[in-house]
Design goal:
About 45% of the residues lie in helices and about 15% in strands. It is α+β, with helices and mostly antiparallel strands. The protein has three domains: about 5-110, Orthogonal Bundle (Butyryl-Coa Dehydrogenase, subunit A, domain 1); about 110-215, Butyryl-CoA Dehydrogenase, subunit A, domain 2, CATH 2.40.110; about 235-365, Up-down Bundle (Butyryl-CoA Dehydrogenase, subunit A, domain 3). Strands 1-4-5-8 form a four-stranded mixed beta sheet. Helix 4 runs antiparallel to helix 6 (about 220-235), helix 6 (about 220-235) packs across helix 9 and helix 9 (about 300-320) runs antiparallel to helix 11. Bound molecules: flavin-adenine dinucleotide. Flavin-adenine dinucleotide binds next to strand 1 and helix 11. Flavin-adenine dinucleotide binds near residues 111, 114, 120, 352 and 355.
Length: about 375
């Protein structure tokens, strides 16, 4: 076992059970701060920008060790998995040294301001405008479905900077302060009862010239790059035994309900298990490829599609196998709410990060080389 893995395992064994498990946002910040102080955050980011300056091998080792624990850092996923990486790829020195250390330490939460009421799958159809005014840009428009914006400090924004060229050529990517005057965030409630995504209104938001990420009007290439980071982040991970969305958790519930000997129930459980393992193995394969210096490119869409499919299958298994247990439960039953969460959150995975249909288009056209769909 490598020295890094040994150190990670020992730290997790000692500290993970004592990390906070209450409010998701403030606890995520605290947990990330502790991970950073211990040398386990921003593992592959350069030390100059608050990272550990290690390689994807240590990152993989950390991910494997940490999978056994519920670290509650999910609200930081967009900042760490997408905002940070795109700034590392394309940001200026000033952007990297301003944002990356604070994201790595959990001081700042990041969000992605791409989708609009009329531009989701077709992100390039966006209508938010950024108009040059001297040294500044003035932004007006509306974004929607912006995950974690109500707790975010920094956002990656796409805006149209030239309306007279074909739509993909007139977009610019900006990095913005979510607390600046001109940014208003209104949380939306989803069907699970949670408020995780938002509407964001941009009214005469003034941005300095240094807020441009990459080149003016070259935002489409930057967008594709950031979406790739997103699809990889959404690809399946090894599932903990006590995670309600794991095969092991569902099998326990079925056993307790006394239906474990029914062959049809066993077959459904086996299918849940197979889907889970296939997702894990695909994620490992992609991780190994990155570790070896490769770039999975559009094949990240396969993992994202598989994760959405598994979530849907699991939700249907929960509803068919457990009769009403995911719909109504006794006040002292803690399993019912966990099962209800599986059912009510499953649809989000087939939409967020690009819908299943869009992933299929990407796989068909860019992985399998099939003819493009007619526009
Ligand atoms: C939980 C959640 C979190 C999200 N977080 C964020 C976020 O943080 N930031 C952000 O910017 N966005 C976010 N989104 C938005 C998400 O990216 C969009 O909802 C998604 O891209 C789909 O866009 P849309 O909702 O406008 O649907 P539409 O694009 O209008 O699609 C409607 C339907 O048409 C289908 N369709 C559209 N075009 C095609 C095509 N060419 N071929 C075949 N079928 C097609 C779609 O698959 C879908 O079924 C989030 C969404 C969810 C559900």
């Amino acid at each position: 076992m490598s020295e890094f893995r040994e150190r990670a395992r020992a730290w997790l064994e000692e500290n993970a059970p004592h990390l906070p498990q209450g409010d998701p946002y403030s606890d995520a910040r605290v947990t990330q701060g502790r991970l950073h102080a211990a040398g386990f955050a921003g593992i592959t980011w350069p030390t100059a920008y608050g990272g550990q300056g290690l390689t994807v091998i240590e990152q993989r080792e950390w991910d494997e060790e940490a999978q056994a624990y519920d670290l509650q850092t999910e609200p930081l996923g967009i900042g760490l998995g997408m905002v940070g990486p795109v700034l590392l790829d394309l940001g200026t020195e000033e952007q990297k040294s301003t944002y990356l250390p604070r994201l790595a330490r959990g001081e700042w939460i990041g969000c992605q301001l791409f989708s609009e009421p009329g531009a989701g799958s077709d992100v390039a159809g966006l209508r938010t405008r950024a108009v040059r005014d001297g040294d500044e840009w003035v932004v007006n428009g509306q974004k929607v479905w912006t995950s974690h914006a109500h707790h975010s400090d920094v956002g990656i924004l796409l805006a149209r900077t030239d309306a007279d060229v074909p739509k993909h050529q007139g977009i610019t990517m900006f990095v913005i302060d979510m607390h600046a005057p001109g940014v208003s965030v209104r949380p939306l409630k989803d069907m699970s009862g949670a408020s995780k995504f938002n509407e964001v209104f941009l009214d005469n938001l003034r941005l300095p010239a240094g807020a441009v990420v990459g080149e003016v009007n070259q935002g489409w290439a930057a967008t594709v790059q950031m979406l790739r980071h997103e699809r990889l982040a959404l690809t399946g991970r090894r599932t903990r035994r006590d995670d309600p969305s794991s095969h092991a958790f569902l099998a326990d519930v079925v056993r307790k309900s006394g239906r474990a000997s029914d062959p049809l129930v066993r077959r459904t459980l086996a299918e849940v298990f197979v889907g889970e393992r296939v997702g894990e193995l695909f994620a490992s394969r992609i991780a190994e490829e990155i570790k070896a210096g490769g770039d999975p490119g559009p094949r990240g869409s396969v993992g994202k599609l598989a994760a959405g499919r598994q979530a849907r299958f699991l939700a249907s298994a929960v509803t068919t196998l457990l009769d009403g247990q995911a719909t109504a439960w006794a006040p002292d039953d803690t399993t019912g709410p966990a099962l209800a969460q599986i059912v009510s959150t499953a649809p989000r995975l087939r939409i967020a990060g690009g819908t299943d249909e869009i992933q299929r288009n990407i796989i068909g056209e860019r992985v399998l080389g099939l003819p493009k769909e007619p526009k």
